[in-house]
Each structure stands twice: as C-alpha cells, then as structure tokens.
Design goal:
alpha/beta; U32 family peptidase; 2 domains; Peptidase_U32; protease; 26% helix; eight-stranded antiparallel sheet; RNA/ubiquinone_mod_enzymes; hydrolase; TIM Barrel
Length: 420
C-alpha cells in the first residue's frame, strides 16, 4: 500500500518552508483575490509565490494553488489573467470549486491538474464521477461525508484521487455555504472574506408578546452565548483506521491563517501518525499529546466516523478559543538565533521542538545548555545575548532583538513550555 500524501497549509513563504521541513509532502497556498483565504493570499507577492513553488519543487514536494472562490461575472476576465500568470509558474494543481472555473483552467492550462475543492460539496459517487469526467483528477470530499461513502466512491471510480480534511477549523454551515458574514458585515464567505461570525458571542432574547416581558437568555454571563461555534476537527486518533481503509490519497490540514507553530506541530503530528500507521507502530496517545499543545476551539472527530445526528459534542458553547497545553516561547528560523514569541528568561527549561528528521546536539557553554531528558531535548539559557552583543535580563514578544543560541539547532525549531 502506498503511503498517502500529507498536505499542509502555506499561509506565507515562511510557513510554507516550515510545513515542508516538518514533513509535508505537499502544500497549498494562494495569491490575489480568487481564494477563500484572501488574508493569507495577501501574504504572498507574485515573486514570493513563484519562489515558494520553486522551493517546494527543489525539495521534491508538490504545490497546489487554491483558486476556490466563487467568482462573479465581473471577475471572469481578471480570473483568466490570473490563471495564465500562475500557470506559467508551473504549480502541480489548481484547487477549484466550480465547473465553470474548471473548464476555464483546462482551456488555459490543460497540462496542470485540477483538484475539486470541498466547497463543491461532493457527497456521492454520481457527483464525483461527473467532476472526474470533466477533468478533476482529485476531489476533496465534503467534510460531512462518512468513511463508508468515501470507500464506495473509490471502489466505483478507482482512477479518482480522494483528499479529506483531517485537521482544522470546521464550518457551522454546509462546507462553507454560508451567508451570515455577508448579512452582518458585507463580507462574502465564498469570495474569501468570511468574518467568522459563527464564532461571535450573541445575546438571545425571549419576548412575551402579550405582556411585552423580555428575558435575556445566556449560557455564560462572562463568556457569552455561542450558538454557532463549531469545535475544530481532529482525526489524529483515527489515522490508523483511515490508513487501513486504503482509499484516501491525501490527508489535508486546514489553517493558512494560523501560526507557524500550528503548521509545524500539526504537520509533525500527522506525519508521525501516518508513518507509524503504515509500519504498524501506531501510538494514539503520542499524537494526541502533540495536537493538544495547540490552541483550538476544542476538538471533535467530525462526521467521517460518526453521523451528524449521533453527535452531541461538535460545538463549543463556552468560548471561541481555548488555550493549548503548551505556550510557544520562541522560534529559530535560521538555527543560530531565536525570535521571541512570548517570554524568554535565563535559567528556565524550554522544550525544543524540531523537524523529525533532524538531530539535536547537546552542549553546555557560557550562553546556555542543551540536554536530553526523558526522550526530549531541553534548552536553558545562562545569558540572553543579542546579535549586536547586548545582554538582556529577559525578553518578551514584540522585542525584535534576535537572541544567540548556545549551539545551532535545526532551522525552524521552536521553544515551548507546558502551561501550569
């Protein structure tokens, strides 16, 4: 059985490199205004986008371009120009939501594969076959599908690649088909500018029309009333069973607008889970521990393994964001210096998180020490010395000074501490 692809988000060029360093087989990203994540699309210029595609290919990885917004008539001509420009950069596939844009892409760049976005809401083999016949080499099935139906599609259309979301934000609506944001703020969800209104706190009232009495309904006087706040998807516990099904070609992590640590940790955890499942060494608790370090809205395993009406735990009624078990304190992009993300002080032990295929050396010198304890590597600074030689008692996020490491670490290593 072939090892399935791990597909990670690339919200900018740095996150793209992090995803690849931490084990992604492919990344997906966008530029300009034809994606469902216009905020991350603005993180790229055409020059850095081309650089990202070339970087992925230099590492033997694939790069998929998201062009999955729902265009209006006035956008068709600019969309044609966009497809022509991006096709010259030679990405591996376009991720598209609509038949019309699929047809346009095939006319302009027939040599580039088309992947059908989850926004197309494919739930059955009839729809899957039509899109496959139209030229889609891969379909990202709707998040609302269950594994049995995915297996059925693969059985009936074996030449069709199937991609599923395994981790990240869930939409309260039907795979993004939502107008709440447009109604409340004029921001169109399916044109890339969703305001996440489902995460807001709402005040609900009950009124007696006869007496005019008005009652305020609330779940939490401090936290507010969250009536549409879906928990985040996490299928990390089920990767072994999904791999054994043999029908999923690509495992996709959501999160182009999320942090560098999110990209690193989620990619690393799913890389371990997939590889261990392939070799019969699956250790569920290990991956769950890593995923729990991330900030989230709480986790649910969604609908792939359970039907919607069987679930009562898919929403977070308390908060739109929960702290993870760990706080990220720093990142080292070059392996020689760190940039502070929270707080760094001397004589504190910080756990080192690095790409799986990289080694960490121990040391003890005037800058600090790195040691191995209980299978993890830790770093303690003795002094905080900047690139310019300035010494700090402590350093906080917002301070742009890069701090010297006692010895070089793998590029894109993180320092973290458990929240007590």
């Amino acid at each position: 059985m072939t090892t399935p692809e791990l597909l990670s988000p690339a919200g900018n060029l740095t996150k793209l490199k992090i995803a690849i360093e931490y084990g992604a087989d492919a990344v997906y990203a966008s530029v300009a205004s034809f994606s469902l994540r216009t905020r991350s699309a603005r993180e790229f210029s055409l020059e850095t986008f081309k650089e990202g595609i070339d970087y992925a290919h230099s590492k033997g990885k694939k790069f998929y371009v998201t062009i999955n917004a729902f265009p209006f008539n006035g956008q068709i001509e600019p969309l044609k120009r966009h497809l022509q420009t991006i096709s010259q950069m030679k990405p591996d596939a376009f991720l598209i939501s609509t038949p019309g844009v699929m047809s346009l892409a095939k006319q302009i760049a027939p040599e580039i594969d088309v992947h059908l976005s989850t926004q197309a809401n494919v739930m059955n083999y009839l729809d899957a076959k039509i899109y496959h016949d139209m030229g889609a080499s891969r379909i990202v099935v709707a998040r609302e599908m269950n594994l049995k139906d995915v297996i059925k599609i693969k059985e009936l259309i074996p030449t069709l690649e199937i991609e599923i979301f395994v981790h990240g934000s869930m939409c309260f609506a039907y795979s993004g088909r939502c107008l709440v944001s447009a109604v409340q703020s004029g921001r169109m969800s399916n044109r890339g500018s969703c305001a996440n209104d489902c995460r807001f706190k709402y005040e609900l009232y009950a009124k007696n029309p006869e007496s005019g009495t008005l009652f305020r309904l609330e779940e939490d006087p401090e936290g507010g009333t969250h009536v549409m706040n879906a928990k985040d998807l996490s299928l990390i516990s089920h990767i072994n069973d999904i791999v054994k099904s043999g029908v999923i070609d690509s495992y996709k992590i959501e999160g182009r607008t999320k942090s560098e640590y999110y990209v690193a940790c989620a990619t690393r955890a799913y890389r371990m889970a997939i590889d261990d499942a392939m070799t019969g060494k699956f250790q569920q608790e290990k991956y769950e521990y890593e995923i729990a370090t991330l900030k989230s809205r709480g986790y649910t395993d969604g609908y792939l393994v359970s039907r919607p009406f069987e679930r009562i735990d898919t929403q977070n009624h308390t908060s739109s964001l929960e702290e993870g078990t760990h706080q990220v304190h720093a990142i080292s992009e070059d392996g020689e210096y760190i940039k502070c993300k929270y707080k760094i002080t001397p004589n504190q032990a910080y756990e080192i998180v690095a790409p799986l295929d990289k080694s960490i050396k121990t040391c003890d010198n005037e800058i600090g020490k790195i040691y191995n304890e209980n299978g993890k590597f830790w770093l303690e600074f003795k002094q905080l010395v900047s690139k310019k030689g300035k010494v700090f008692d402590e350093i906080h996020s917002g301070n742009e000074n890069e701090i010297k490491l006692p010895i070089n670490l793998p590029k894109f290593s993180f320092l973290r501490k458990e929240n007590l």
